[in-house]
Amino acid sequence: MSSLDLAEAVLLGILLVTALAITRARSLFVAAMLGGLFSLVTASLFVLLDAVDVAFTEAAVGAGISTVLFITALALTNSQEATTPRRRVIPAGLVAVLATAGLIYASFDLPGVGDPDSPVQTHPITDTYLRESQQDLHVPNTVTGVLASYRGYDTLGEVVVIFTAGIGVLLLMLGPRRPADEARDRAYLQAEYRVLRVVSKTLMPFILLFALYVLLHGEYGPGGGFQAGVIFGAGFILYTLMFGLAAVQRVLPMRTLVVLVAVGVLIYAGVGVATMALGGGFLDYNEFNPGNPSGGQVAGILLIEVGVGITVAAVMVAMFYSLIRRGVRR
Amino acid sequence: MIALEVASSVLLLAGSLFAVTGGIGLLRFPDFYTRTHAAGLMDSAGAVLILLGLLLLAPDLGSGVRLLLIAAFLLITGPTATHALAHAARNDGVRVWAERVDKKR
Amino acid sequence: MTATHYTYWIIFALMMIGLYAVMSHGNLVKKLIGLNIFQVAVFMFFISLGRVDGGSPPIITEGIEVYSHPLPHVLILTAIVVGVATTSVGVAIAIRIYEAYGTVEEDNALARDAAEEAAE
Amino acid sequence: MLSAALVAILVAMVLALARAVIGRHLYDRILAINVFGTKTVLFIAVVGFLTGRPDFLDVALVYALINFVSTVAVLRLSHYREAM
Predict the structure, then answer these.
(1) Is the pLDDT of residue A196 over 80?
(2) How crowded is residue D66: how many other Cβ atoms within 10 Å of its Cβ?
(3) What's the pLDDT at C104?
């Protein structure tokens, strides 16, 4: 048993313990924090399972954004859970145990993890994505290639879902706001978080720079529009937490964000329309550079990744703003 | 080459020692503030020693630079986070172990 | 080959722990957290299907021949970001329910609805 | 030696998890989760070297960054009512 197999077993064990601890925790604050830990562990597992891009995203989203979302929600609602009545525990537990047993029984028909002869590995599409893509696209990171080129329609759909969810949150959170008292907030933050403020301010440009690097480097290493957008969002969330909503809104007002949410989707769809105008199909990037199709592909992929990054970042920050400025109405 | 590998092994082992002892301290120390001490040690000393050990094995410039960036980042954020936590805990009235002992007497 | 199946089993157990949290807990935020566990377990299931022994992350480099399948990675990568966007819609709805009912416990909110209906 | 470091990191992770689950105080849990995050950063870095593809250290960098952001967020938002 190599040390990597051992690591996989230990991490899976940690996941089980954490999941059980989450269901048992009465304090929702604790449950949300353990949820963040759960995400960190899954992200490490994704690295062991050779999915670095997924690990990248899960770390940024699960451990970062979701935890922040849940904790903000708890700040706006109740952070203590009522005890679960027995009449709900027993049937639910029974269903869960039976379903687990059923799934484990069914799993014997699955090929083993890592089986090189499994249908997934022998299907002809595997070869298309891994070998032919190198001639078609010249993008070493096949995940980015498949995401942005082969399955470009699908990704456009996903971006529209994110757009819709963002708009949904903004609409749900219209209404009463916390009365803003900028001077008092600033005094409080300066007194309480002096060191954190200095460090956050120093780190902020590097975080944004790193997000840009992730966006532009996505064709050669782990990264891309989704990951970059989330890192941008995390940077602005950090800044908002340490300097207050009023300060960050001077740089990136809500009005601009709402426009940016749409701009990203429009860039993506616009690339599709542009390729159609050039005589190709929707999102057929070869048309950008007919003499050198793979050059056109690289340009097209980069453009849509920028669109994705803008929408994801704007949605994440806009959702956070609208939650954090929500007035508590009782 | 062998000298490099030996040096990296020594650093990795030292870092591992910090990681494990820090973990034990985090679990066994009697109050929050002493636990911050254990956590701070494993976050800064343990992490940086392991990263330096890896640095000696780095095959190219790119991974070396990244390792240094990670180490610098951890060195800045680790102590900051620990400090902020201890500060907030103190303001919230989390008591030091010795104070609790005094109360009991 | 059964030695490699244990990954699936733990993933299934995680899914069901998530499902249990959704079914048994009345607190809406806790339900969302449970749903998140379920969702992450499904992600892991997909990724483990694409894995291959001795493989490497699907970023083509000279000298490496065996790569894991990139398609599950693509699907899950987008699903993670979509997942957080939909979760936040759920969170927003939970906040609105709290503002309307003064509680995020399903039972209490339903009881209040029933009481109001009876009063009418 | 890399394997030894990996095992040490796993042991530290388990110990930190135990502290996060036991808790006692909210701050104990935040501290334990912060430590756990640092350990995952090291874990990813060591795994990168063990599998012979250390070019994925970007992932470890993201972990370090997000770990800091979420620790700050939890700390800050547990005092949400005071100011924003």
Answers:
(1) yes
(2) 28
(3) 84
- B70/D61 Cβ within 8 A: yes
Would you state the structure tokens that stand for residue D50, as one six-digit string? 């063990």
Residue spans of the domains in chain D: they are 2-77
Measured between beta carbons, which residues in chain C are less than 8 angstroms from residue A230? Answer: 81
Residues 16-75 of D with CB under 8 A from B: 16, 18-19, 25, 27-28, 30-32, 34-35, 38-39, 41-42, 45-46, 48-49, 54-55, 57-58, 60-61, 64-65, 67-68, 71-72, 75
Q: Which residue has the tokens 């027993």?
A: A90
Chain B meets chain C (3+ C-beta pairs below 8 A): no
Q: How confident is the model at residue C112 (pLDDT cuts 50, 70, 90)?
A: confident
Question: Which domains, ranges and CATH numbers included, belong to chain C?
Answer: 2-119 (1.10.287.3510)
Of the candidates A265, A267, A264, A251, which has an alpha carbon nearest to the alpha carbon of residue A321? A251
Q: What is the ipTM of this complex?
A: 0.91
Instruction: Please indicate if any CB of chain D lies within 8 Å of the CB of C63.
Output: no
B74-97 pLDDT, tens digit each = 999 989 999 988 888 888 877 777
Kindly state whether C61 is in contact with chain D, defined as any CB-CB distance less than 8 angstroms: yes
Looking at residue C2, what is its pLDDT? 45
Has residue C1 got a pLDDT over 50?
no
Comparing CB atoms, the residue among B27, B42, B81 nearest residue D18 is B27
Contact C61 D51 (CB under 8 A): no
What number of H helices and E strands is found in chain A? 15, 0
Chain D residues inside the 8 Å CB shell of A324: 84
C57 near A CB under 8 A: yes
CA nearest neighbour of B51 among C36, A231, D46, C7: D46
Residues 6+ apart with CB under 8 A from A283: A149, A152, A153, A156, A271, A272, A275, A300, A304
A57-66, A255-264, A320-329, D26-35: least confidently modelled range: A320-329
* Strand-pair partners of A177: A326
Q: What is the pTM for the complete model shown?
A: 0.91
The one-character DSSP state at A64 is I
Locate B42 and state its tokens: 């494993």
Sign, CA torsion A319/A202/A183/D69: positive
Long-range own/partner contacts, residues D50-53 (CB < 8 A, 24 or more apart): D50/A3, D50/A4, D50/D2, D50/D3, D50/D6, D51/A4, D51/C56, D53/C56, D53/C57, D53/C61
